[in-house]
Amino acid sequence: MADRSKLFEGLDFVLREAWRRPKYRAIMVAVAALAVLAAIASGAALAHAASSSSVTSDQTPYAFAVLGKAIGAGLAVGLAGIGGGYAVGVAGAAAVSAVAEKREVFGTAFLFVVLGEGIAIYGLLMAIIVAFVLPT
Fold this sequence. Notes:
The protein has one domain (about 1-135). Helix content is about 90%, strand content about 0%. It has helices at about 1-20, 20-50, 60-100, 105-135. The protein is flat.
C-alpha cells in the first residue's frame, strides 16, 4: 500500500510540474481532449449497436466502421485545430511585432496568419468527408 501512495505522489508531482510549462500544458489538454473524444465515439458506436433489436455477427463490422469513422473525423478536426492554433499563435505574435515596427507589412503579415487558419479549415473539410461522404 505504501508503494502505491508513493507512486501517486510521484505522479502528482510530475503533473504539477508539467502543468506549469505552457508547452506541456497544451500537450496534456490535447491528450485529455482526445481521450474524451474516443470515449464519446466508442459510446456512440456501442449505443448504435445496442439500439438494434437483434444484434448478429454481421452487424459487428458495421459498428466498428462507424466507430472508426467517428474517431477519424475527431482526430482530423482535433489535430488540425491544434496545429492551426499553434500556427496562428506564432504567426500572429510575429505579425503584431512586424506591424508595430512598420505599418506597410500589414498585408503580408495578415496573409501569414490566414495561412495558419487554412490548416484548421482543411481538417474540418477532411472530417466532413470522412463522416458523411465515405461509405461505411
